[in-house]
User: Fold these one by one.
Assistant:
Number 1:
Amino acid sequence: MEKTEWYLEYEIRYNRPGLLGDISSLLGMLSINIVTINGVENSKRGMLILSKYDENIERLKSILQTINTINVTKIRKPKLRDRLAVRHGKYIHRDSHDRKTVRFVREEIGILVDFMAELFKKEGHKLIGVRGMPRVGKTESVVAASVSANKSWLFVSSTLLKQTVRSQLIVGEYNPDNIYIIDGVVSKNRASEKHWQLIREIMQLPSIKVVEHPDIFVQATEYNIEDFDYIIELRSHEDEEITYEPMERQQEMEQNGFSMFDY
């Protein structure tokens, strides 16, 4: 029988000397191995553990509930956010009203890149929206996550270097392993019908699609926000408001100053 991975998290009520050693010894007596351990926000400690027998996890849960120096907050099969919490020492933050929305600030770009890379490694269709103000690091994070996931990225529309709006792909670019990146503002304001036809074709591919400014994107298409599997918000700081007015003004200015590269 193979060992199963679990995520254990507990809050430290009283951090007496030797507490971690006692818990490690308990795990050892139950033949449970520690894979990774780290502090996780607000006096919590999280760890990935391995156990061959699920009943030993139940015994562990019962014993830990009798220890008054800690409060067990989670014992479960690890989710992506649990793995990231152990790796980085903090949780990614979900919107309390919309569980598909996850929030980051710029100083957490390392966690964001790891989070997206794990999503990119999964096979099949996935539609991911990225909200954020200009120059906060949206596109750079998507590209870095693609590299981390060992995937190729392809700009369908973008302003990363110059204004790019594509109306067709070459044969080798129709690849389910590609990460297709679409800028909703650019596509809405600068695109032709050929470009939109290309987007419809890409949406049918069993691949990852990342849409920057998804709220603008849905205004110009038959898609809606509910079609997105994840919405990622990236801010310079926690209190920053994400608004599209500056982006749309910038697009109007660029229409007079930049040429559009239509492939």
Number 2:
Amino acid sequence: MNPLFFALLRSGLWERPLTDNELAAAAVVGEAEWAALVEIARRQTVSGLLYRAITHLPADFRIPGDIVLGLMSVAGGLARENQAKAAVTDQLFTECAEAGLHPVVMKGQSVAAYYVHPELRYSGDIDLYFPPKEYPRALTQLGGEVAPDGTRHIRRNGIDIDIHDRYFDLHCPDIQLPAVGTPEATILLLSSHILKHAIGPGVGLRQCCDIAVAWQALASSINPKEMLEIFRQTGTLRWNRLLFSFLAEYLGLSETLFADERVSSEPLLHIILEGGNFGHYAEARVEALQADDRKRKRNTFSRFLHQLPFSLRYAPRETVSTIWGLFRGNLH
């Protein structure tokens, strides 16, 4: 991976200019190399952050015009999409409030507010969580179809919404998980979501950027010892040591969690670069995603098997539970 890409990513993520050394490296980049950087950002769904990075370059800095115009166009499209999704989310919350329901926005939509420019964050589906006692009424109220993974799926104004009765992507014994809505719950949700995809089809940089900005915003409200204990009880302590090492090394997170226990983040970097956004660019994955449901499931299962050396090292308990659930056709 081109070190300049991560320098630009950090610039856009934290809204700060490049260092003098990084600026010198960017000054000798040609048009083909800029095009390659744009393609990496597209595959990792962080084009909005690359756009923000170029706004921090000196006024006399020369970038090929097509590159600038292309990123401006992408940024405009992202802003329009996010505006539309925000309107649908507001509409759903109004509808739910009238029915006495209390949804919680999960994952991407919930973490977008931690970005300086949330309108430039690539957004996928809208994920809504309902407490188990409300979930049956929510299904009646909102309708929709059941997806292959058991999630209820609806569409509003052309936008996909997934409805969940489960907040964390974890298969834990009966332990006391943090309450939904707390800072600890947000970090555990984002971390476990990245883990689920890292041990399976793959994961990209956008999800890592999400947890980086969330931690930066919430760290002062979190007791590090309590967060580490949550990771220990959920069997994800080793995984989170790897994840936070990656966030510090490549995304420039000024973090205190695991500050004295950093490990090499190369194993996670390899997964991110191999597959990009949710592993969509991994070998054979592109073809599988365009095939029928059976072939997609076979490919997903083969990806889990392919990742076993990594998975069993960093999250053995979660890996076994997830693969067993996948085998039974109940992967969440």
Number 3:
Amino acid sequence: MRKILSKSEQEKKRKRNSIIIGVILMIVMFGSVFGVVVGSLGQGSSGKNKMEYNGYEFLNENGLWKVSIGEINFIFRYFPTETTDTTNILKNVNNYYNKPLYVYSEEAESEIEVYANLQQIAARIQPACFSNETCEGDFPIKTCSDNFIIIENGTEEITQVENCVYIKGEKQELLKLTDSFLYKILDIK
């Protein structure tokens, strides 16, 4: 039998869970930045693949593809040729520059990929709920007037409606679709 919780206990549990998720995401983000810094110190070592795509030089380290655009380093799980092409019109990365970005994701790796790459550009990134959806946790409710990335299971597509980007696909394909989205807005692909 489940213990009946009062509203204040439920609220405390939700806040605790939100804090735990936030701390985990921060550890992952700082760990990836630390990994990039440590990895860049030993750039002369063997075992690293360099490949060029569309004028950009990619470095494969530990199964991740790294590329520098200006002063910013981006990290992807998939090389651009491994991702699907999207012909949909998406606003480029400047749309996110120094603005809050909200993310709803049904797949943790895709969410981490967005955080790891766009945290360097957006003013802040935080989880949120879409105004029409029901979601667990104490997250702000946002609409397409906000910069909002929604990653969920569904028929494979990447679309943009106002400031909402919908990345939909089968669970095992969501990370690849997220990389496709990031390559598109960065004008790499």
